[in-house]
Specification:
The chain is α/β, with parallel strands linked by helices. Helix content is about 25%, strand content about 25%. It folds into 2 domains: about 130 residues, Roll (Urease, subunit C, domain 1), CATH 2.30.40; about 220 residues, Metal-dependent hydrolases (TIM Barrel, Alpha-Beta Barrel), CATH 3.20.20.140. The protein is built from 11 helices and 23 strands. The protein is globular. The chain binds zinc ion.
Length: about 400
């Protein structure tokens, strides 16, 4: 059984990470930083640089990265959690803990839609969203930050509902289209109300996921104007290429590629975004748990696929699951910058990969070997039980 813990601040702790082989920033504008040392105070990045140039005095914990690659903790932009580390979708316990072992430190709910007997009436929708927000804010499964409480809009909701949800702490809408609202004009009105009150939205894109859900085409997506074009590569059934191209070119919103989608459509989206200089809008998710199950390595599998078959440098592919998502979703993690949350994943080339370095191995389509995961400056996992074994792993010196 995965252990669970309440959110905490890391106050009074000073972590020094030295001997970093390659420091990935999460930022497309400069994906590799010229630094080998990170200093973390009170759970936030306090300094980045060469060991001789930063203040490492008074550390309460020292990690020797052992020449491995350090990246911002991975962000899964699209999950469907329900309660703690249990999912009723495939009746699994410990799925979030498994994803921690895949380098994921933050997950964003696209709706708690697998709740058995999910309410569809307005008061029930609101009550469930607030309950989910409270539950995951109070308890992080294995330390993973799960941003949840994402109501799926239904006909009958009025602006006051969005105002009161926001006042209660709800910051997300679940996938537009999974409830009764499937038409452009109604979706657009509710998304606008949500945005006005500080609630970010996402929309289901493509054919129905499971019996009972329905087609959302590019005209509805463009009309709704949600902040995130959820699973632009379908969940699994993708829109025709011409419609995906329209979404890349006619909307300014985030282009979310998911693991549980159409792989060819994912590559088409990546190429289209790259050609139209919109790579900064591409973000990654798993869309798990789902009919396809749970993929603990889903995010690194998409990174390796997009880098190798999609022909982008590995350090760029990592930005799609870190800095891009942080910026499109206004998160305080995802980038190696002073003041950001100290959420990190340490990786090295998997043992016996044909690639000589981690970045080369990912470019060849191999998964990274994960050696450690840190959240808010605290070690939450050491050598991953799920990835192929990393050649080198970090060591805790103190
Ligand atoms: Zn969906």
């Amino acid at each position: 059984m995965a252990h669970e813990e309440a959110a905490k601040s890391g106050a009074g702790l000073k972590l020094v990470i030295r001997n970093i082989g390659v420091l990935l920033s999460g930022d497309l504008q400069g994906p590799i930083l010229d630094a080998d040392t990170l200093v973390v105070e009170d759970g936030k990045i306090a300094a980045i640089g060469r060991e001789k140039d930063v203040d490492t005095e008074g550390a309460t914990r020292v990690i020797d990265a052992n020449g491995t690659v350090l990246a911002p903790g991975l962000i899964d932009s699209h999950v469907h959690p329900v309660a703690g580390d249990w999912t009723p979708r495939q009746n699994q316990i410990g799925w979030i803990d498994s994803c921690l072992h895949g380098g994921v430190t933050t997950m964003i709910s696209a709706g708690e839609v697998h709740m058995p007997g999910r309410p569809k009436d307005v008061v029930g929708v609101k009550a469930m969203a607030i309950t989910a927000q409270r539950g995951f804010a109070a308890l992080r499964p294995s330390g993973v930050k799960v941003l949840a409480g994402a109501p799926v809009i239904e006909h009958g909701m009025v602006e006051e509902d969005f105002r009161s949800l926001a006042e209660a702490g709800v910051r997300l809408l679940g996938e537009v289209g999974l409830g009764s609202v499937k038409d452009g004009p109604t979706a657009r009105q509710m998304v606008a109300w949500a945005r006005k009150h500080g609630i970010q939205s996402t929309i289901h894109t493509g054919g129905p996921s499971i019996p009972g859900s329905s087609l959302i085409d590019k005209d509805v997506v463009l009309a709704a104007d949600a902040d995130v074009i959820g699973h632009i590569n379908g969940g699994h059934t993708a829109l025709p290429d011409a419609q995906i191209r329209s979404l890349c070119e006619e909307s300014p919103r985030a282009l979310e590629i998911v693991h549980n989608g159409n792989e060819r459509a994912a590559l088409f989206t990546l190429r289209t975004a790259k050609e139209s200089r919109q790579l900064h809008r591409v973000i990654l998710g798993t869309d798990a748990p789902a009919g396809s199950g749970v993929q603990p390595l889903g995010i690194i599998r998409v990174i390796a696929a997009l880098s190798s078959i999609g022909e982008i440098p590995a350090e760029v592919a990592f930005c799609l699951a870190t800095g891009n998502t942080a910026r499109m979703r206004n998160l305080d993690c995802g980038l190696i910058e002073v003041g950001r949350a100290a959420d990190f994943v340490f990786m090295d080339g998997a043992q016996h990969s044909a690639g000589k370095t981690l970045l080369e191995s990912v470019r060849l389509g191999d998964l990274p070997g994960i050696g450690m995961v840190v959240i808010d400056g605290e070690v939450k996992g050491e050598r991953s039980r799920n990835t192929p074994p990393a050649t080198r792993v970090p060591k805790i010196l103190k």
